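Tutorial handout. Part one gives the primary structure; part two gives the three-dimensional structure as tokens.
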Amino acid sequence: MKEIFLDLLPYQKKAFLSKKEIILFVGGTGTGKTWLGARWIILKALKNPGEYLLISPSLKLMKRTLWKEVKKVLKEWGIPFEKNEQDMIIKLFNGSMLYGIPADNPDRMEGVHAKGGVYDEAGQVDKKVVFETAYRRLRFHSGQLLITTTPYRWNWLKEVYDKAKLGDENIELITAKTIENPHYPREEIEKAKKEMPEWRFRMFYEGVFTKPLGLIYPDYELVEPFEIPQNWLKVRGLDFGYNHPTAIVWLAKDPNTGTWYAYKEFKKSEVDLDQLYQILSKENIPTYADPEMKQGLETLKRRGLDIRPAKKDVLSGIVFVQGLFKQGKLKIFSNLTNIIDELSSYSWKLDANDQPIDEPVKENDDLMDALRYALFTVEGMNTTRFPYRSVMMDV
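Part two.
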């Protein structure tokens, strides 16, 4: 095997030198996150033979990024290895095993006592259980976990980031802006800065956790999924669609605390009424839908579903849902990735001075509508009109 030399940028060198349990590298686009992760884990596996984890948000992304980069580096360095593409396993000449783990199948880590792991683009995954499982599987050998990511949205990763900022001695926090990589085209950075909203540029090119200006529901809280008790009130919200997605949100209310939980979701385009009936009829609970879709409502009602027109006062409904979030009376299961995606971008329109106005942006909001239909109709229909201006400007 030939001698290996690495031309490291200062922030990359910091990752290689760290001795802490968790190395959290939060960087902008093009800061060499996957590049770093592949080389870091290979060198670990060469120096200390054993089992190692390669974790990505999905199988598709794994094959396109981390898995591909690891194989590329092994070939470039002339390191003999065998690979099993179907099971996503790489065996090095010294006996080290590298296991490819898509985040939607964290159980693949069970039984592995890993000596190191890389969790690439971890911020795309809203389920904290993947991180927790990886960390647990590393404890037997006191192995290190390198997390490399862009801060896509506020989820469990922000919690880890905040702990590091507060001085947690077990976490090495490394941050980098795209501009810190001298190889990244400067004109592309300037182009993005001109074309993207400031909050999005800061997130994707400066590696800073930000929220969209005028975010409508900034106070949402995620919880780990659990089995809904039989005695809880259950309802659904439905936003009809065909060319744009049909969206359904399942909600349950804890009778002891009055807290609502969004526990299930559906979002898909080109769903006709027959297909929608098949989905809804599996559990005939009250469903509140867009009242303007009268034909769809009547058709589904004639077929025996408990489906009702929702109260559709957009601004008052939004403020009612805002209040539930602020009071901790509405929580979202952390595996509802589509709802979380909408929550992280659902914003008020901005005027010429970039100030929020009383109108939400009608984009990627199907589940937000469904959520509002159910909650505002069930609990908000007997309330007076809300002073939405004062609440909106508080976000």
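Part three, for discussion. The radius of gyration is 24 Å. The chain has two domains: 10-206, 222-392.
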